[in-house]
Amino acid sequence: MTASPPSLAKHATHVERVQRISQVGLILDVCCRVTGMGFSAVARVTDETWLTCAALDNVGFGLKPGDELPLQTTICDEIRQHKQVVVFDDAALDDKYKDHHTPRIYGLRSYISVPIIQTDGTLFGTLCAIDTNPRKINTPETIGMFKLFAELIASQLSAQSASEETARALIAERETARLREEFIAVVGHDLRNPVAAVSAGLRLLERNVPQSDVVRREMRKSIARMSSIISNLMDLARGRLGGGIAAAKQPGVILDDLINDVVTEIRAFSDQDIIVRSKVDAPIFCDPQRIGQLLSNLIGNAVTHGTEGFPVTLDANISQEVLTITVINQGRPIPDAVLEGLFQPFRRAEAHSSSGLGLGLYISSEIARGHGGTLTARCNGGEIAFTFAMPLGDEGHIQV
Questions:
Q1: Which of 34, 180, 198, 359 is most solvent-facing, going by the fewest CB within 10 Å?
Q2: Please, what is the angle between helix 255-267 and helix 288-305, to 10°?
Q3: CA distance 390 to 324
Q4: Beta bridge partners of 379
Q5: Distance between CA 144 and CA 217 in Å, rounded?
Q6: Selection from 80, 78, 69, 110 nearest residue 93 by Cα
Q7: Contact by Cβ (8 Å): 339, 380
Q8: Which of 351, 314, 342, 340 lies closest to 329 in space, CA to CA?
Q9: Which top CATH class is 173-241?
Q10: Domain-by-domain residue ranges, the chain?
């Protein structure tokens, strides 16, 4: 028998699940001893392949765990559809299978295969046995034994799935608890300073101290900071509980105006050089408030974490009806493991950073999703780039 090369890397999970069932070796041995057949196996059956998960080969068929057979060459192709037992004592004398391609391809005469159906009703594969000689196996006793073994394997596989699901739920609950604790700590930290500033300002105003205009200005900044924190928390709730941040799109939005407004605001509190290269010279269809928020988050993040003396650059263009905006800065390289989780809530590029709640990139990614687009990040050495890509589509064609 000729099998495809081992594919353990591709199907390791299914092979390992079967191998973890301690009774499988005994089951295959009993199947061969009772029937006198030379080969028995537990197979994973997919839409395309027959995968050996465990096998007892006493006659040199050559199949071992991880080996595949094209599904169309096997009788399991039929079992996958009707989920019934297939058994014959001698293919040469069986009206249905004497001209079947499977016995001819693999040189088998006797055959039994029982579907392994998990508790959720899905077909995992089959428990089967074959031999090159005729065997008396089409009996209630043999079929009953194979069915019992198949049910035992199915129950073990289902128990493994339930255990794995419980483990995943436990991990998710631990992550939720961690995020909850971090959320409380970060919100408390970020609100404490502006609240203290407002409280101090009020005490100064009550004493009619000089420079009351300066005090009022600082209080307004603190209130604006608290409002920003609250807005971010509301956006977090919308993104996590409401299925994403909705985009109130409107036609005729001038992207260059949005970019210029955001850059002007950021330049008011930062000396970092910001270079804008925009080739979008026609109105587009989008939510200007949300896109402005996305731009503010990306540019502000680049300015905050960028290396001093290196400019932040923004490139915007449209190619093949896709709007692309990329913000680039030079900074400390971000490890791949951190990069992958940057768009999750409360995640930061620097583990010990105290700059905000860590919601900006998450909210930006939700805004991108609300526009049918994506937000991605890459780090090449010290160059860090965030790219927003939005297909313009039928409703988002450039307004001319």
A1: 180
A2: 40
A3: 7
A4: 384
A5: 85
A6: 110
A7: no
A8: 314
A9: mainly alpha
A10: 8-164, 173-241, 250-391
Q: How many residues does the chain have?
A: 400
Q: What dihedral do alpha carbons 93, 96, 97, 98 form, nearest 10°?
A: 50
Does the model's pTM come out above 0.70?
no
Q: Report strand pairing: 312-319 vs 274-278.
A: parallel
- C-alpha–C-alpha distance, residues 74 and 81, integer Å: 13
Q: What is the CATH number of domain 8-164?
A: 3.30.450.40
Distance of alpha carbon 286 from alpha carbon 284, whole angstroms: 6
Q: What is the phi/psi pair of residue 99, to 5°?
A: -110, 10
Q: pLDDT per position in the chain (400 positions), as tens?
A: 545 444 444 456 889 999 999 999 999 999 999 999 999 999 999 888 899 999 999 988 888 999 999 999 999 989 999 999 999 999 999 999 999 999 999 999 999 999 999 988 999 999 999 999 999 999 999 999 999 999 999 999 999 888 888 888 888 788 777 766 666 655 655 566 566 667 776 776 667 666 676 767 667 766 766 666 666 666 666 655 556 677 788 999 999 999 998 898 888 778 889 999 998 878 899 999 889 889 988 998 899 888 888 999 999 999 889 999 999 999 888 888 788 788 877 665 554 444 455 677 888 888 898 899 999 999 988 899 999 999 986 554 444 3
Spatial separation of the C-alpha atoms in residues 85 and 111, rounded to whole Å = 10
Give CA–CA dist 399/217, Å, rounded.
41
**Residue 37 in 3-state DSSP?**
coil
